[in-house]
Amino acid sequence: MQLNEIHNPSEHASVSLKTILLVFAIVLIGTLGYLVYQQNTEIDNTDYGANVIQNSETTTQNSTAETASADPCDFSTVTASVIPGKTFDIFGGENFSTIVCGYIHTKEQNVGMDEEIIKNVAYVAVKKFKDDAFKAKIEAGITGEGNTVNAKLGSDYLLGCGCLEGGKIVASPEPTGGLMSLADQAKFIASTAEKPVIMKLTYEVHGGSGCTCCTLFEKAEVL
User: Fold this and answer.
1) Using an 8 Å Cβ cutoff, are 108 and 120 in contact?
2) Which runs of consecutive H residues, i.e. helices, occur in 82-150?
3) Could you tell me if 82 and 221 are in contact, meaning their C-beta atoms sit under 8 angstroms apart?
4) Distance CA 216, CA 170 (A)
5) Beta-carbon neighbour count of residue 146 at 10 Å?
6) With a threshold of 0.70, does the pTM exceed it?
7) How is residue 145 annotated by DSSP?
8) Domain coordinates in residue numbering, the chain
């Protein structure tokens, strides 16, 4: 190239533009890299402990609700039609039905009148009554009326329901239609003080008679 050769202005512009673009690209890449670094190293201020506490409180509340609803003597969990009692005459003077919560209790005792007859007598051990008037009648029968069919076991009331023989509940004399279905017998026999069952007891008008495996109610149903 000669010293006095004239240069094209576009050549200088092209070199300058490339230089500017190169510098801009370097700055842009550096900036993006710095932002990515800042994002990755930023301190996480999320309060995970609060979430754990909240979740724990929710679990505790749910467990409490489940425990409350698991009350085996919660009468609101069952539906049954009953004949309301007026005097709750348990000795055959009135037709009525009532709801109780209890479990089976058995004890061997002499049920004979003129001779000794040992039977495994069965009782509905009532932990809770739906009708307070019925509870008062049972209490009066045990303490003041000489009722030998019913009794008390601590704070529970024992209502005679025949005898336990061969894995079945039998009454003598047997009420018309049977005292309890086989399915209900199985549930009742499997009940315990810790796992009682809710039952509907039906009393009917009848004349008094002698009995060995005695019951004052005519029918029992596990609800």
Assistant:
1) yes
2) 132-143
3) no
4) 13
5) 7
6) no
7) S
8) 9-69, 75-222
